Amino acid sequence: MDLVPLLITFNNADYKRIYELLNKAWLTEEELAAYVDTSTVAECLSILKKGNLIEEQWRMPEPGQKPMKEYRTTYNRFRASFQCSMSDIGDLLHIAVSNDESLREIVDSVEREVAAGTSSIGDISRKHGVSPTFIRGLAKRIPSLDVKGQGMVLLDQPR
Questions:
Q1: Would you list the domain boundaries of the chain?
Q2: What fold, for 3-73?
Q3: The pTM is what?
Q4: What's the Cα-to-Cα distance from 35 to each of 3, 47, 48, 63, 156, rounded to whole Å?
Q5: For residue 157, is pLDDT > 80?
Q6: Cα separation, 146 vs 14, whole angstroms
Q7: With respect to CATH, is domain 86-154 assigned 1.10.3470?
Q8: Is the pLDDT confidence value at 158 over 60?
Q9: Which has the higher per-residue pLDDT, 70 or 83?
């Protein structure tokens, strides 16, 4: 499912720029905001974290300053060796690059269900008539949700 964050990152020019900057050096959110809008930085970092595409550490502050998290890319090479059904890969590609309004309706419904306590990926996928792979991929795209085991969890919203 980490394919969705990867595709989202490289389908958005600002996200791609952030990834390329983090591929060269450790940078903080503030430093990245010099290149793209602050809200874009937070959204992108959230997507990159979900895909395990970045790592973070605390930067040692100057005396009297607060410590800040800094980020860099986890990988600088891509190698894929996987097998899945054409239906699943089609769903993942659609989720990653689509602006389809019907996806927005499913996203809103899934967010409401998880907020109300339904977290089972199987239950949510049956309710919407889609595969569990579809729901997992959707969770990787939704900033407020992520997958934990066989369930979904609400995340803190990016700033």
A1: 3-73, 86-154
A2: Arc Repressor Mutant, subunit A (1.10.10)
A3: 0.72
A4: 25, 18, 17, 27, 24
A5: no
A6: 22
A7: no
A8: no
A9: 70
